[in-house]
Design a protein that fits this description.
Distance between the termini of chain B: 37 Å
Helix content of chain A: under 10%
Number of strands of chain A: 11
Number of strands of chain B: 11
Structural class of chain B: mainly beta
Order of helices and strands of chain B: EEEEEEEEEEE
Number of helices of chain A: 0
Radius of gyration of chain B: 13 Å
Order of helices and strands of chain A: EEEEEEEEEEE
Helix content of chain B: under 10%
Oligomer: heterodimer
């Protein structure tokens, strides 16, 4: 079982729709959770982080965390063609065996159709 | 302010050669991380520095890989006797401190190609 799992996609949504990206993780000791956006040929760019169960909103982005289900998601409202990218879920297990490092999923490719 | 910088942006080398990749973190960030990313994969952890010391080098694949951060700022990743399988994008990230909750910011990466 991979430590961080994401559907590779592509996830295709029309412009203006809500894009929902999902991620599950295996280490129950994971403490913090991050979403990075990566455009083709570029490096990952941090867009959201969440530490506590529940929802966290930042502009058009909402991160959701459910530690009991070991599940984290990212919602993008009013999707724009410029949101088309690969979204990487990353988990930090600080203090546990995984230490202070990020473990990444393979990413979900999002395509927003004009 | 300036972000994480990495040099060179591209490096092409021949199998068996030695390479050095440099990372300059965000000013004031005490934690520095190296990852590498292969096509279609997420970044894979290599090593993490807190200040000058390597706090976790569990991701280094073998003893051909070594990294230093002598003054607690700039770091150099060194790869000896390069192999074709070392070809990847090497990413550096920094954060305010290795406390687990601090966000990591990535540099543009160095694309290493071993012929």
């Amino acid at each position: 079982q991979k430590e961080v799992e994401q559907n590779s996609g592509p996830l295709s949504v029309p412009e203006g729709a809500i894009a929902s990206l999902n991620c599950t993780y295996s280490d129950r000791g994971s403490q913090s959770f991050f979403w990075y956006r990566q455009y083709s040929g570029k490096s990952p760019e941090l867009i959201m982080f969440i530490y506590s169960n529940g929802d966290k909103e930042d502009g058009r982005f909402t991160a959701q965390l459910n530690k009991a289900s070991q599940y984290v998601s990212l919602l993008i409202r009013d999707s724009q063609p410029s949101d088309s990218a690969t979204y990487l879920c990353a988990v930090n297990g600080w203090g546990k065996s995984s230490g202070d490092k990020l473990t990444f999923g393979t990413g979900t490719r999002l395509a927003v159709r004009p | 302010g300036a972000g994480v910088s990495q040099t060179p942006s591209n490096k092409v080398t021949e199998k068996g050669k030695y390479v050095e990749l440099r990372c300059d973190p965000i000013s004031g960030h005490t934690a520095l991380y190296w990852y590498r990313q292969s096509l279609g994969q997420g970044p894979e952890f290599l090593i993490y520095f807190q200040g000058t010391g390597a706090a976790d080098d569990s991701g280094l694949p073998n003893d051909r890989f070594f990294a230093v951060r002598p003054e607690g700022s700039v770091s150099t990743l060194k790869i000896q006797r390069t192999e074709r399988g070392d070809s990847a994008v090497y990413l550096c990230a920094s954060s305010l401190g290795g406390l687990g909750y601090n966000e990591q910011f990535f540099g543009p990466g160095t694309r290493l190609t071993v012929l």
